[in-house]
Amino acid sequence: MMQLSVKDAGSLAVLTLRGELKDSHADELKTCLRRVLDYVNRLIVNCEGVTRVDASCLNILCSAYRMSQLMRKGFVLAGHQPRLFMQAVKATEYVHCVGCGLESDKGCIWGIC
Fold this sequence. Notes:
With 113 residues, the chain is of the alpha/beta class. The chain has a single domain (2-91), classed as STAS domain (Transcription Regulator spoIIAA), CATH 3.30.750. Helices cover 35% and strands 31% of the residues. It has helices spanning 26-39, 55-70, 82-91, and strands at residues 2-9, 12-21, 42-53, 74-78. A four-stranded mixed β-sheet has the order 1-2-3-4. The longest helix has 16 residues, at 55-70. It is globular, with a radius of gyration of 13 Å. The chain starts with a strand and ends in a 22-residue tail after the last helix.
């Protein structure tokens, strides 16, 4: 079960995620990220309480990061367990994020590009 909460402080928001980020929660996560990015200049996504990540939610977080870069907004992934997220990255069999375009200027959120 995924739990999310948003604390908005004007131009900065903190989105706290807890539990399992699974396919069944992908639409809710995508909608929340899209709404928050529309209204703030900087977003911190706190993943400290995340216990599992699957490919669908991993892709949504990646897309939100790329979108924030295109919108010239700050996006920080905080409190995540690199091992947990890298396992999800490897499970998707990413070798290189084709078409991302961030590999040369901003850097990959997962550190693989």
